[in-house]
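QA checklist item 7 of 12: single-chain prediction sanity check.
[x] sequence parsed
[x] length recorded as 423
[x] structure emitted
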Amino acid sequence: MKRALTLLTLLLVAWNAFGQDFDLPCDDLDYKESVRTVLLYADGNQLEDPLIPLDQPQQRLTLAFDLLGSEGQVLNYTFIHCTNDWFPTEIQRYNYASGYEYGRIDNYEFSRNTLVDYVHYQLNFPEADMMPVASGNYLLIVYGDDPSDLYFTRRFMVLDEKASINASVPRYCDDLSLSDTHHQLNVKVSMSSIMGGNIQDYSNLTIRQNGRWDNASVGMKPSFVYPDYISYEHDPMTVFEAANQYRRVNFSNFYFNSENIAHIYQTDDYYVVDYAICDPRARKPYVTYEDIHGEKYVYIANEGHETNTEADYAWLNLFLRWPAPLTHEDMYVMGAANNWQFDDRNLMQYNYELHGYLCQMLLKQGYYNFLFVTADRDTGLVSTELTEGNLWDTQNLYKIYFYYYNASKGYDELIGYTTVNSH
């Protein structure tokens, strides 16, 4: 009992570290190398965005992740409220959450019959004693005994639906020269119950292409305000590179070489999956096939086996033929396999002997989508122009979030959400 009270006191003293006094990026970031395969989703479906309705607290999110190694430990978690453009809000916690300030993650299992040892954790939240009470953006924070001992953070959202969103992707962009390579969205938002004089200042729209945040349009203001709706039209922020269909790899079964896999073999310490040699697709005709918009679906195909603890990890080798190293850009593998981030885990290295870029990623068994992209070293701008090309025919899923600033409460409410396919 004394230890529990001491821990609680330390957490309360350190709580401001998670508030406005702590410079914590509100992003999907892993802070420890041992953290792998973090999944956060709704409705029991790995492919569903982590978004829950404010008026249905029984609809909880699933958090699942692995820690490499063979030692289990109890972890802690909390969440903070964020602005529409993903910065910590300055409001007090009691304005956006009820109950305790932190919870424990003590549901874990050890891997079985795997070459790579790991501990699998799972949590369903929000829980009755720790519940968000305001709509908007949130950041989930997972940490050890000390709040400064961060493991990872993940974004999620709470929706209080008061607005209706209609969106479309017309065949031609305003700039006709982009019509074959880009998508432009037209968006209308109806919210007659709160239409007022501050609509131009208080409303903010965010558009994401698939699961990406690096190219998301955030904080968009209406192009036109009408008596019963607002619209976002003829705005450069609604224009996105169309990219190409995502490449795909499935190694849910190590005893079968599925599409695009050249070899699968086992060493003493791990499995290795060699993906077939890839070529750039820029300036090549569009080829249609289904993908899952860059996401991942973790599973093991062996009947009777448990994905959470019996799916193994493998080193996935990817190789893209390329005549010479790029001089002003870095090359990455983009997709949910690396949480849509761009870091050392998915940075490609040029091999002069093989004349191409190589990347090796440690991934849990399953089905993954990815694209090869370049990132400008000066601006950080990520593009598919050189590697995959940009084709209007590409199937992209656009996710649209509408926020309205509640002046009396002092935070951005998420009051509208929809998705639209490019075709």
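[x] summary fact logged: Residues 247-383 form a domain with the Immunoglobulin-like fold (CATH 2.60.40).
[ ] second reviewer sign-off
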